[in-house]
Specification:
Elements lengths: L2 H39 L15 E6 L4 E6 L3 E4 L6 E4 L1
Antiparallel strand pairs: 1-2, 3-4
């Protein structure tokens, strides 16, 4: 083959790669615009406030039964020394 044929083939390949790169760049730009539109439509996440407990709690430790309880402040604990019973009254 003649050297001019090789030059012509190389020139055709360069033009082909240029066109393929140009088209892929257009495709990427189009996808970026679509992504920007989608992201602008979705609202940003909002934090929901965590509720604070309104009831305060107390801790009870039994000496006889090696027991530990957490109960609301308005309750009363009565421990029996004769039986294995712990009553919680409001």
């Amino acid at each position: 083959m003649k050297p001019q044929t090789y030059l012509f083939l190389i020139l055709l390949l360069l033009i082909f790669f240029f066109l393929v790169g140009f088209r892929s760049g257009q495709y990427v730009e189009k996808q970026n615009k679509i992504n920007a539109i989608i992201l602008s439509l979705t609202p940003p996440p909002t934090k929901t406030p965590t509720p604070t407990p309104t009831t305060s709690y107390q801790e009870y430790k039994s000496k006889h039964y090696n027991l530990k309880l957490i109960y609301p402040q308005g309750f009363q604990i009565i421990e029996s020394t004769k039986e294995a019973v712990i009553e919680i009254k409001k």
